[in-house]
Design goal:
This protein has helices spanning about 5-10, 45-50, 60-65, 90-100, 120-130, 165-180, 205-215, 275-285; strands at about 35-40, 105-115, 115-120, 135-140, 145-150, 155-160, 185, 190-195, 225-230, 245, 275, 295, 315. It is of the alpha/beta class. Strands 1, 2, 3, 4, 7, 8, 9, 10 and 12 form a 9-stranded mixed β-sheet that branches. A two-stranded antiparallel sheet has the order 5-6. A two-stranded parallel sheet has the order 11-13.
Length: about 325
């Protein structure tokens, strides 16, 4: 198959396409509570206008993606919600309804806090301002410096992540209204807080203790603090966290065999890593700790070649038959 035929096939509704159903296909409540990580970058902000060009959103990356080898499914274009704008509260309302129809009970918003400055906060604020939007939620503090890593310019920093005792307390103050919202997820009366890069915290144990003390004194309980398993950090006890959470393809996906030589490229390779989805699943299923609590995670697919002009990672052959690793 040549490039043009592959692109035409990807843009058409293929045999595996499933239209949205009028009614929920669920005959009973899911056996597990499904929480979807929520990337809030599908709307413009002044900072991204400055760094990436006027009007930049995640749709900019989505729409410029092209298939790089035979059988490569790109671009991933939106379905019934279209090229939505997360500045609109109705967008979040529609997403919440769609999620609940298919058994997703909550969103985990990536929360961007940089020493008193927040970015991409509009969707979460829309949720707080509209109590009629019926979806539970929590946050994942994405505590990492932003750089131009998408275009291989890792050394150019866009905004630094800084830490201090004062910043710990200011961060706690900023999320206090979230913990007070009745839709916020609690685990046995403890508000769920995720922190993306615990290894970046200069003194994780001290930061976590300050957060716990702050919210206890505020009458909001002892937070249930969870770390996604990233950067080869798997054990939450190392950082005084309560539990770990799966964040695939981390902890299983990066160690898969590169099968690039078994596929047919449309152009010269750009240092991509092509792997089988079931290899990632098999690696993830071996991640079954007995010493600490793990909230397992899955990804329906993974392909970041839309963001990266070189060095992208793509998993092929994804299917929900492999979701047995959640059991």
């Amino acid at each position: 198959m040549d490039f043009l035929k592959q692109l035409q096939q990807n843009l058409a509704k293929g045999p595996e396409y499933e239209a949205e159903m009028a009614q929920s296909p669920l005959s009973k409540e899911p056996l597990v509570r499904l929480i979807a990580y929520y990337l809030p970058q599908f709307h413009p902000i002044p900072e991204n206008d400055e760094w990436w060009g006027r009007g930049f959103t995640e749709w900019t990356n989505v729409t410029k993606a092209l298939p790089r080898f035979e059988g490569h499914y790109q671009p991933h274009l939106p379905g019934g919600l279209g090229f939505y704008d997360l500045r609109l509260a109705d967008t979040l309302r529609d997403q919440a309804a769609l999620a609940q129809k298919y058994g997703v009970s909550a969103f985990c918003f990536h929360y961007y806090w940089f020493h008193g400055k927040r970015l991409l906060e509009t969707p979460l604020q829309n949720l707080l301002d509209n109590p009629d939007i019926n979806i539970s939620f929590c946050i994942n503090w994405a505590n990492e410096t932003w750089s131009r890593r998408w275009d291989a310019s890792n050394n150019e920093v866009l905004i630094h992540q800084k830490y201090s005792i004062e910043d710990d307390l200011e961060f706690a103050e900023s999320i206090r209204p979230l913990f007070s919202d009745p839709r916020y997820i609690n685990i046995n009366g403890r508000p769920l807080l995720m922190i993306y890069r615990p290894g970046n915290l200069p003194d994780a144990a001290a930061t976590i203790q300050r957060l716990r003390d702050y919210f206890r004194e505020a009458g909001l309980g002892n937070p249930y603090i969870v770390m996604p398993q990233t950067d080869n950090h798997n054990d939450p006890r190392e950082f005084s966290f309560d539990a770990a959470a799966g964040f695939p393809p981390h902890n299983g996906g990066w160690d898969t065999q590169n099968i690039r030589r078994s596929v047919t490229p449309f152009e010269s390779w750009r240092n991509e890593h092509i792997a089988r989805y079931d290899d990632m699943v098999q690696n993830s299923m071996m991640n079954d700790p007995k010493e600490f609590k793990l909230l397992p995670g899955v990804c329906p697919a993974w392909d970041n070649t839309a963001r990266r002009q070189s060095g992208g990672i793509c998993f092929i052959g994804s299917t929900n038959c492999f979701y047995q690793c959640m059991e």
